[in-house]
Structures are given as C-alpha cells and as structure tokens.
From TrEMBL:
InterPro entries: DUF1759 (IPR005312). It comes from the Eukaryota. This is Gag-pol polyprotein. Residues 137-169 are annotated as: Disordered. Residues 154-169 have a biased composition (Polar residues).
C-alpha cells in the first residue's frame, strides 16, 4: 500500500484528463519500471519468510504458498530459480516447526531430496492436519451443543429479512475478490498481477477502472 500511496503522490498534481493520461503513465513507468529492484525485492522476501512456530495446516500452507509465489515471479523475470532447489529447501527447513521438520527428515526426505519432494510432503501434511483439525472442531461443536441443552432457547428472536441475507451474501461474495483473475484474494496479492511489468499493471488498472492508489473500483484517485 505504501507503493500505491507513493504512486498517487507522483500523479496527484496532474489533472486527470485524456490528454494527461500519457504524461502520468510515463511518470509512473519512469519511477517504477526497475526490473533489478523488483528482483531484489522478491529475493529479499524469500530470505524473510515467516517461521512456522507450531504445527498448523494454515501456517505450513502459508509458507508453501509464500515461497512458490515469489519463485514464480522471479522465474517469470528470467531468473534461474530451477537451480536454487538446495538453497530454497534449506531456507524452508529452517522455518518449519520441530514436529514437521522431524517428520520430513524421518519419512519424507529421500537421499536426493528435491524442492518438489518437499512441497509435495508439506502439501500432503497440510491435508492430513486439516482433516484432524476438522474432526477436533466437530468434537468441540458437539460438546458445545450438549452444554447448550441445559439452557432454553431465547424467544422472540428476529429472523433475518431477505435484504439482510442479500447484504450478507454480497459482502461475503465481494470480500477478497480479485478484479483481474476473479480469485479469492485482493488484487495486490494476485500472482498474475505482480508478475506483470509496471506498464502492464497500469494498463490493467485503467482497463478495470480501478483507483491507482487503493486498487478499488468504487472511486478514482481524485476522491480516494
């Protein structure tokens, strides 16, 4: 978001007209079209990936997704990421919790361990943990329902109206919706968007009629 605010400052003094769009566009490209800086930023992200403090499907999946996202972007920028396997494996192992790391060393780590093997192992482990966590939650729900039997249900509880349901549905549907790929995430987390050169990102923002400051579609930068 800091980058978006900085971009907004660059063009805020330019009147938003058709004639001035090219001027604003060129200013933004001149400021941000720096492939070397972009590469360094994504490499830095790989070295600062978050640690999995305890065994958790969410934390492990976030580690996998985070790592693969930055590797994909760097590969799209013609960096030889396929030759970084040993380095990435070491970095990911250093971020795993003790239980998961022990399981990887005992069962999932072949002699010629590859990054693909590690990713497959972690994704399979996430699926197992998700099933276990789901069962645990179900037990908690069942236990809670048994406790609720000791209490009477509240009377005169207002039923949700059709408008309430529609509002809730709209909010749920729009939350985390990517305008570019329609995925369940915001645009500034979209791998496809992040992999684009700066000039293409700006074109997409113009095509999608988004505010270049906050990447939303319900206003423009002038009223952001």
């Amino acid at each position: 978001m800091e980058v978006l605010r900085a971009a907004a400052k660059i063009v805020e003094s330019i009147e938003l007209t058709t004639e001035n769009y090219t001027v604003a566009w060129n200013l933004l490209i001149k400021r941000y079209d720096d492939p070397r800086a972009i590469k360094k930023k994504h490499i830095q992200c790989l070295f600062t990936m978050s640690r999995v403090e305890r065994e958790s499907s969410i934390a492990i999946r976030e580690l996998v997704d985070y790592t693969l996202k930055h590797l994909r972007i760097l590969k799209s920028m013609d960096l030889p990421t396929d030759s970084w396997n040993e380095l990435i494996i070491h970095m990911m192992e250093a971020k795993l919790d003790t239980v998961t790391l022990r399981a990887w060393e005992q069962n999932g780590n072949p002699v010629d361990g590859s990054l693909e093997n590690l990713i497959d192992f972690l994704q399979t482990r996430c699926q197992i943990l998700e099933r276990i966590e789901a069962r645990s939650k179900q037990k908690d729900v069942t236990k809670g329902n048994d406790s609720d039997k000791h209490y009477s249900k509240p009377r005169n509880q207002a039923k949700p109206t059709q408008s309430d349901k529609s509002s809730t549905l709209a909010t749920t549907t729009n939350a985390g919706k990517c305008y570019l790929c329609q995925g369940g995430h915001f645009l500034y987390h979209c791998d496809k968007f992040l992999a684009m050169p700066v000039d293409e990102r700006l074109k997409e923002m113009q095509r999608l009629k988004l505010c270049i400051n906050c990447l939303r579609n319900d206003h423009f930068i002038k009223t952001c």
